[in-house]
Protein: DUF58 domain-containing protein
Organism: Pontibacillus salipaludis
Amino acid sequence: MQWRKELGSSLTQSYDKVLAFSLILLFTSLVFNRSAAFIMIGAVVAFVSFSLIYDRLIGKGLTFQNEKHAYKMFPGDRIEVPLSFENQSRLPIINGRFQFKVGSEVQGEKYVVSQGDEWTRYEVPLTVVERGKTEWYVPFEARRRGVTILRDIHYSFPHLLNFHEIFLYYLPFHRLEFIVYPEPLPVYGIEERNHMTLGSQQARLSPFEDPVSPMGTRDYTSSDPFHRIHWKASARKQTLQTKVLEKNWDHTWSIVINLTDPSPGGHLNVASNIEALLSYAAYMCQLATKKGYPFELYINARKIGTPPFYYLPEGNGKEHLQKALEFIARIKARELVISFSVVLHRFDQQLYKPKTVFLLGSQSEEVRRYAHKWSRQKFRVYAVQDQGDFATLQDPLEKEGVYGQS
């Protein structure tokens, strides 16, 4: 069942009044022997009977489309969302008002009846035809990062016979989602910082070669090392042959984000520049995808499960970028956060190969200790410094020398 029907107390009271009037009229006609009054009583009883039948049947065959769908947008994008209804009843619903609430992540261009900081209520004029489908399009514009849904859905319309209000409250969880990706903000200097190491990614030009992946042979030259000689190929061709090995590299970015601000009392407060931090992360994910680099995300927003924080494993390509942007979009500005120490410790335990590490958010002495440790292990470590509408790179072990600033 999709709807819970409410007829309203005024409608019930009107029936009571009409029936009470009919009983009085019946008693009077019997006492004074007024046969004409029976015609009026019959009309009243018929009216109430038809009204009760209408009350029971109206809205019974009405369904509201509830297919799972996600509209994925960047701030400023516009879409039109179809609201689809199907009425299997012979009774049409005329001059109705379909109402719902949507979070302020998106803003409707029409039908707004009330607006708050977090939610906006909409009212769409809607008439549903008998035994047919009705579709209405509502335009929206993406405003800010986040995820929102349709809530508090109900449909109200006047009673066809007595014009009192009837309410249909939608019961299921509606599965339509608006996912607004963060607006990317540039991080200057990041394109000039590269860290290649031996890995599994193939490359035409790389200082690293995989000794177990020969691509073929070529004629031996005096500069070739002796251990690179391919003896079987040399015997077959009757001249010395050198192994040609497959070139590869690894250039993985680890984006580690601290969403907490330092507090003198040790409390975990959400960073005041959380939106900027997540926008820098979105820019870095886009840039890594453009360059073909794998990347992973560690964010100290609390979640249920293991690990107890937001973690996106290493991956690359457009599909991984879409996962990352949606991952970031789902973090709420008022999200519960976890100590950044937990994230740093977990990240440190999972390091098994050299990577380029980017640290976003406030930095404590503990962050610097980890950065010093990773630097000694031949990692490239950078701190992303918020400069307002853009960010720059800085060595977390130095107070000066910000990359990307003139």
Summary: DSSP finds seven helices and 25 strands in the chain. Residues 197-213, 400-406 have pLDDT under 50 and may be disordered. Residues 69 and 176 are 5 Å apart (CA to CA). The longest strand covers residues 146-158.
